[in-house]
Amino acid sequence: MFKSVLHMTKFPVLKGSVSADGRLTSLFTNLNVITSKNICTTITCCKEIRSQNEKVKVGRGSKYGLIEGETTVEALNINQQDLFPDADTPNRLFNGVPFKDLHIVNIKSSPNNTIFSFTDSKGLVIMTHTAGIEGFKNAKKGTNIAGQQAAITLASRILDYGVNMVRIRIQGIGAGRMSSIKGFQMAGLNVISITDATRVSWCPPRPRKQRRV
């Protein structure tokens, strides 16, 4: 089994470390010779081992693909400091303003519309905006383009209000969920944190019976 997977004939170091019962008895002594072409994966995992020089493929046929101004998703560096909140986060200063005193942008993304509300740190609503007010009608209100355009318009109004740093609190799993956040960044608004407040039902209603034809 190991001979077919790792091509033992090409690697005498690994070939000599295989015992009679087919188990590896010693550690790999030379891992630099093993490449992604010499490692096989099972069909059940459906994973591809890509080298660092290969480009990551973007999913094709997606219902909500990339739109203007968007790029591929960038991986976060989890080794960065202050990436996750702790006990001192409310008192941490951002450009001289404590985190607990930052203004909040609430986003409610539903399949039919994307609703925005800009509030102060205590929750007092200052301004609101929706994709329907932006001019999109009917089913177009729930698209990612409508959410991004509405976010850009609201961000420009927030900048005119005199605020350039906000916290985002998002709720819902609509199409304008990620594009609206991208719209705030494109408009020049500095997003300090993103909080997912989507409600989860622990006792959902019973689904309907399957339709019989």
UniProtKB/TrEMBL annotation:
The keyword Cell cycle does not apply. GO terms for cellular component: ribonucleoprotein complex; ribosome. Pfam families: Ribosomal_S11 (PF00411). Gene3D superfamilies: Ribosomal protein S11 (3.30.420.80). GO terms for molecular function: structural constituent of ribosome. Coiled coil: none annotated. The keyword Membrane does not apply. GO terms for biological process: translation. SUPFAM superfamilies: Translational machinery components. Keywords: Ribonucleoprotein, Ribosomal protein. It comes from the Eukaryota. Belongs to the universal ribosomal protein uS11 family. This is 30S ribosomal protein S11, chloroplastic. It comes from Camponotus floridanus.
